[in-house]
Amino acid sequence: MNSRTTSLPAIGFIGTGIMGKSMASHLLKAGYPLHLFNRSPEKAAALLEQGAIWHSSPKELAAQCDVVITIIGYPKDVEEVYLGTNGILAGAKPNCIAIDMTTSSPALAVRIAKLARERQVFVLDAPVSGGDIGARDARLSIMVGGDPSAYECALPILQCMGNNIALLGPAGSGQHAKLCNQIVIASTIMGVCEGIRYAQAAGLDASAVLKVIGSGAAGGTQLNVQGPRIIKGDFAPGFMAEHFMKDIGLAVESAEQMGLHLPGLEQAKRLYQLMLDDGMARDGYHALYQLYIANKV
To answer: How many angstroms separate the CA atoms of 176 and 182, rounded?
Structure first.
């Protein structure tokens, strides 16, 4: 595996959704040759207009690239995109680095990395936190698991998309760290919803309350960013509830495998399932507040 030279490596990007389109645009602006595949071609249109190159499959894309980045939906999608007949490993050149930025299963990350090494390909699991705003502003936190030398080669590319990046251990470590992140968010957003609901029931100006408590010990991203959105009734997705529910499910599954009982996480799973059952799957995850308004919790 060679370090970067004066010629920038060709990057393949798979998954141009809410976050992926911003992340890919930063790579284009940095001058990297960018190759694209997405299941919905129309979602790649703006990037293609800016000079990205379209491919008809992950296999075809990987054959033309030095680095491949994925940020897609569910573990089953990751498995297909990497291990399928027309997947990345079927087309990747030796010493290619693939970076999966999807929140996925730690066990799957370990399996993909092992199969990739048998083909002389390096796979990093590198899920992100920061949502649509972090992706737009290139301020994502990126949690990485995998080979240290591959990480060092990939770091300049990751720095185009994030500003808090760490290698946390071998394959699967990035996914475990991201599940820690989602566990914290799951209980925190419930607390934000309950605090706002309490303020409103007490006849207080909830915005004024947030302004005061947001600079104290209760402050944080969920309160200070999602709180005002909740009060305004703005439930547009920066991160959809159905995807957050997927992450919660992965965390519950992984915790059970380790023999852990995490009651806050389990309560969050129950509430988010109610959200999905009520048809709010594609609302932002902060739309959980609507359950409190409707007295469905």
So the answer is: 10
Phi and psi, residue 43, nearest 5°: -75, -10
List all residues 6 or more positions away from 288 whose beta carbon is below 8 Å from its beta carbon. 189, 190, 193, 241, 271, 272, 275
CA torsion, ordered 103, 81, 162, 181, to nearest 10 deg: 10
In angstroms, rounded to a whole number, what is the distance separating the alpha carbons of residues 28 and 30? 5
Encode pLDDT of 271-286 as tens digits.
999 999 999 999 999 9
Token pair 């932002």: residue: 284
Query: In what order do the strands lie in the sheet containing 162-167?
Result: 128-129, 140-144, 162-167
Reported pTM:
0.92
d(CA 2, CA 122): 12
Amino acid at 147: D
Distance CA 297, CA 290 (A): 10
Closest CA to 70 of 111, 123, 26, 133: 123
Q: Per this entry, what is the length of the chain?
A: 297
Handedness of CA 44, 48, 51, 55 (dihedral sign): positive
DSSP letter assigned to residue 227: H
Find all residues with CB under 8 Å of 37, minimum gap 6, and list them: 12, 13, 14, 54, 55, 56, 57, 58, 60, 61
Which residues are known catalytic residues? 178
Closest listed residue to residue 196, CA positions, set 171, 222, 178, 168: 222
Please tell me whether residue 297 adopts helix, strand or coil conformation: coil
CA-CA distance, 164 to 226, in Å (whole number)?
Answer: 21
pLDDT tens digits along 181-199: 999 999 999 999 999 999 9
